[in-house]
Amino acid sequence: MKKIISLFILFVFTSCDFAPGSYPYSEIYEFDVSEEVLIKAVEEFKTDNPKYVLSNQERFIDGKRDKKDHWYHIWFYYPDRNKVVKSWIRGNKIAFVGIGDGMDLSNYKEINKDFSRQENKNEKEIFERLILDEINNYTPPTGAYKQEQTK
To answer: Which end of the chain is less congested by CB atoms within 10 angstroms, N or C?
Structure first.
């Protein structure tokens, strides 16, 4: 009986180490650059491509929410589709989290969770082509990104 109780206590105290985290369905892409270089590349991309920027929107401000935040949040806008894309940077990784309609994020869907297989594939290809491939142009030649394996 003591063994069972000990195992249960061990499980309770270690189980949070195996939790999926805050963004378990995100599609993660890894760059061969530092977090600072990646953030700067995104900022330069947005400066040169203002159509992807959500201007005058308090709700969609890039950056960390506070000093304890682990993620540098980034928002992109697809003007031709009137879609808002949520993503983040942490370390040398950028994640595609989800996408919603218009400035109110109606019909918000998380990537790798809420789309059909084909829709999911299409959304990731659009993000890679419009955003990541372009950001890649703002990183050093050795900074090319690679997609992590989807869980």
So the answer is: N
